[in-house]
Amino acid sequence: MDNDTIRTEQPYLSIVVPVYNEEGNLGPLMERLYPAVQGIGRPFEILFTNDGSRDRSLEILRRMVQQYPGVKVIEFNGNFGQHMAILAAFEMSRGEIVITLDADLQNPPEEIPRLVAEIEKGHDVVGTIRQKRQDSFFRKFASRIVNITTNRITGMQMQDYGCMLRAYHRYVVDNINRCRESTTFIPALAQTFASNPTEIQVGHAERVEGESKYSFYSLIRLNFDLMTGFSVVPLQIFALFGISTALFSLVFALFLLVRRFIVGAEVEGVFTLFAILFFFVGIIIFGIGIVGEYVGRIYQEVRKRPRYVVRQTYGFEE
């Protein structure tokens, strides 16, 4: 396929790569990604979103636009997060099949043809399961908690929400583009529009350059976003717990009343009652926190602020 064909034809594939401080990985990434996509033999585009990088990532990406036909760059004017970076590229992508990929090379670009093949078989969303995952015990444990919690609360069934090497059919991406919420989680959102999703196993490598952009706090935030953004089950569980607690308290109060008449006044068990009280106070505070999460999401939506701001684009035809 010649360079003019890549520039002029309607892309069949759109590869979406969010970038945040990845200057050491971008060169090796393109050395592997570009041949892998070229080998499929169909017109393609590669969209990078520079999510407010503070290193030389943008400079490197701008050079790639000149060096590699089909490469396009979206420049944010700040750091809006991985999922906003992907959504911006989704809105500007044109491919029939859209594939997301992290820039850190932990997921091999050579796996992309396998994802394309699954979409061509009739699946509309193709997720991936990282095999022999090269992450720390903490990250693997936190990821497992997120997967289990999300499946239980949302009713979805995915084994690995954290792997961003995923493929989407055009109509799924179009439906995602119609959603305007200010915080979201794209793999879970795509599942709500998928009619025939699947997952395949892919390789996983250790990060060579840079460091993970997900801190412990970010993982907690992600879990809360998943719980409150795709289900009201946490509120329902808390309501049911409140009803059960009220019934139990009523029964316990009647028991103490009858016991007082039979045994008489006593002061034993005061510390036990305090322990029970503190337990329920903790539950109440936790419940208020869950309600606060939902209220916070409503507050973010009613402000109607832009989800992200694009400063400039490179490589897009006028």
From TrEMBL:
Membrane-spanning parts: 237-258, 270-295
Cross-referenced InterPro entries: Glyco_trans_2-like, Glycosyltransferase_2, Nucleotide-diphossugar_trans
Domain of life: Bacteria
UniProt entry keywords in alphabetical sequence: Cell membrane, Glycosyltransferase, Lipopolysaccharide biosynthesis, Membrane, Transferase, Transmembrane, Transmembrane helix
GO molecular function: undecaprenyl-phosphate 4-deoxy-4-formamido-L-arabinose transferase activity
GO biological process, one term: lipopolysaccharide biosynthetic process
GO CC entries: plasma membrane
Domain Glycosyltransferase 2-like, first and last residues per copy: 14-174
This protein's record includes keyword Membrane: yes
Name of a matching Pfam family: Glycos_transf_2
Protein's UniProt name: Glycosyltransferase
Organism of derivation: Oryzomonas rubra
Organism classification: Bacteria, Pseudomonadati, Thermodesulfobacteriota, Desulfuromonadia, Geobacterales
